[in-house]
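Sample entry (136 residues):
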Amino acid sequence: MAPGTEPALTEPLQLLTNAVVLSYFDHFNQANFTAVANLFAVEGQLLPPFESAIVGREAIASYLAAEAKGMKAIPQESTETSLPTGETEVQVIGQVQTPLFSVRVRWQFVLSPDSEIRSARIKLLAALRELLHLKH
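Predicted structure, serialized as tokens:
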């Protein structure tokens, strides 16, 4: 890339710049799960790995308080795409660290035109044998 030029918003491997998604990670890492949930639309969905959808702010806050204590989410790269519906899709790749292990993860956020999270899908990027190893 030539000096002084900026990458396009849809260029892969850019640093995370979406304010709502940045807030998601900031609040998550502070264990402020109510603030995380308030970033979602009223009927927003959190789609964790191996679980059914968690729907609604109250349910998302409760789920995170029970399941995400002690976790840190570390975004490392992202892409952002404007969808024909007026929504924005932000994909983030990074790591989740727990007190016992660290695993690579992809988050896929769909944001409404009003910048609320409609859905956040979380996918583990580890190989099956790595996941099986975590059970021990």
